[in-house]
Design goal:
The protein is α+β, with helices and mostly antiparallel strands. The protein has a single domain, classed as Alpha-Beta Plaits, CATH 3.30.70. It contains three helices and six strands. The strands form two sheets. The chain has a four-stranded antiparallel sheet. The two termini are 15 Å apart.
Length: 121
């Protein structure tokens, strides 16, 4: 099964962490991707640019409406993701617990709905 591990944390609090610790967390995340790859579980992963760089797109009455930045006020923003293969939810949760971002925020574990007909199948 494929799972998306969505990393949420407070961007402002993250920037207040000393630079060396932030770099260590990134190095740990990269190491985790290599471990997952060695186990055949890695699909993709990436941190995201800050929420302020986002553009929200809605279509109403056939017209696109664009809003800069996040459209909801929350304590935590989506900071990045891991797309993995896991045997079941328990294994995905176990992997989520190894994501460094879980120590400063939350890692949401969501199973993907697998559909046919997509590119690269």
């Amino acid at each position: 099964m494929k799972f998306m591990l969505i990393v949420h944390h407070n961007e402002e609090a993250f920037q207040n962490i000393e630079k060396e610790k932030r770099q260590q967390m990134l190095a740990e995340s990269i190491e985790l991707t290599h471990q997952l790859h060695a186990n055949g579980q890695y699909i993709n992963a990436s941190p995201l640019q800050p929420a302020a760089t986002a553009v929200m797109v809605r279509v109403r009455e056939g017209k696109p409406l664009l809003t800069d930045g996040p459209f909801i006020e929350t304590r935590e923003q989506i900071a990045g993701y891991f797309l993995i293969n896991a045997r079941n939810l328990n294994e995905a949760v176990s992997i989520a617990g190894r994501v460094p971002g879980a120590r400063i925020g939350t890692v949401e574990v969501r199973p993907l709905i697998e559909i046919t007909g997509l590119p690269d199948e």
